[in-house]
Amino acid sequence: MSHGSKAPRKALIVSVCLLVVSFLLLNVAWDLRAGTNRTHKSRVGHAEHLFPAKGLGAGGRPAIGYIDQTGSLVIPYRYLITWGRFSEGLAAVQPLKSKMLGYIDRKGTMVISPRFDDAFPFSNGLARVQKGGKTGFIDKSGKFIVPPQYEDGQDFSEGRAAIQDKDGLWGYINRKGEVLIQAKFVSARSFFEGRAAVQTVPGVNPKHPPAASQLIMSDQGQWGLIDQHGRWIVKPKYDAVGNFSEGMAPVIRDGRSGYMNRKGKIVIPLDYRFAGDFSEGLAPALKQDRWGFLNKHGQWVIPPRFDQAGPFSDGLACVKIN
């Protein structure tokens, strides 16, 4: 292969890398700072090694397809929207000529026909979908296991999914749709390593919240940590709490970030502007205006020198230097 043909391939791989970094950083930042409930554990290693890429589809129309780690096009550019990653062998997509979303397999075959208003990755054998303005969960045949009856929800994790009821409060159900933890939180995140972050608002009766959605966005609430039975491990006192990964979870308080362990103890001080998830023993962290990588003792393994940085996967991490 000539040097001329290698250059476009290299440029494509770099572009994909930066696209994945941007996707990961946006998800992490939005999850922690805005308390969003559209969360999942986003890691390159969980993407099953196919990545969305923009190109030109039929008739020269801009579209999205999927490439592999070498930058080779595996699934043609023929989708208007993709949720992004493959999960459990399937990915949610919206074909160019459809107004609805369905699911394709890794060969690009549509295995669940487009019939959902919105659709999300499979997790624990079920996928969260929206139909008629309500959220439910389907299996891999496309059958509703939990009918679309909730205002919003999160993906299943460790056999539980956070759901939002008609009053705007969040609780948890199991894979049969049975309520495990009553809806009483202003916001809630998925379970990881037996813990979940939930948000309450001091002085507000959770059964009669005034405009719960406004409270979420007003940052008046505080975040704490519960176990799988809904019991407090850490009572609400943080501005944000992230997902647990490798025994650690990032937290934010008074605009500073650090890490707690599974018992809720702060083990890496809140000395950072931002802190990401641990993966392969390291976590990206922002100190002043540069990103580096910390170990679980809070030591810089890779000093801060990057403009952007994502988590490690298979020994590699995507970074950006302007």
Task: Walk me through what this model shows.
By secondary structure, this protein is mostly beta strands. The protein has helices spanning 3-34, 212-218; strands at 51-56, 62-67, 73-82, 90-95, 101-105, 110-116, 118-123, 126-131, 134-138, 144-150, 152-153, 161-164, 170-173, 179-185, 187-188, 196-200, 222-226, 232-238, 240-241, 248-253, 256-261, 266-272, 274-275, 283-287, 290-294, 300-306, 308-309, 319-320. Strand 21 (256-261) and strand 22 form a beta hairpin. The longest helix has 32 residues, at 3-34. The two termini are 29 Å apart.
Total strand segments = 28
Spatial order of the strands forming the largest sheet:
1-2-3-4-5-6
Mean pLDDT: 83
Structural class: mainly beta
Specify the number of helices. 2
Following the backbone from N to C, one meets helices and strands in this order, namely: HEEEEEEEEEEEEEEEEHEEEEEEEEEEEE
Q: Which band does the percent of strand residues land in?
A: 35-45%
Radius of gyration: 20 Å
Distance, first to last CA: 29 Å
| Proportion of helical residues | 10-25%
Uncertain segments are 1-47, 206-218
Overall geometric form: flat
Let me know the largest β-sheet: 6 strands, antiparallel
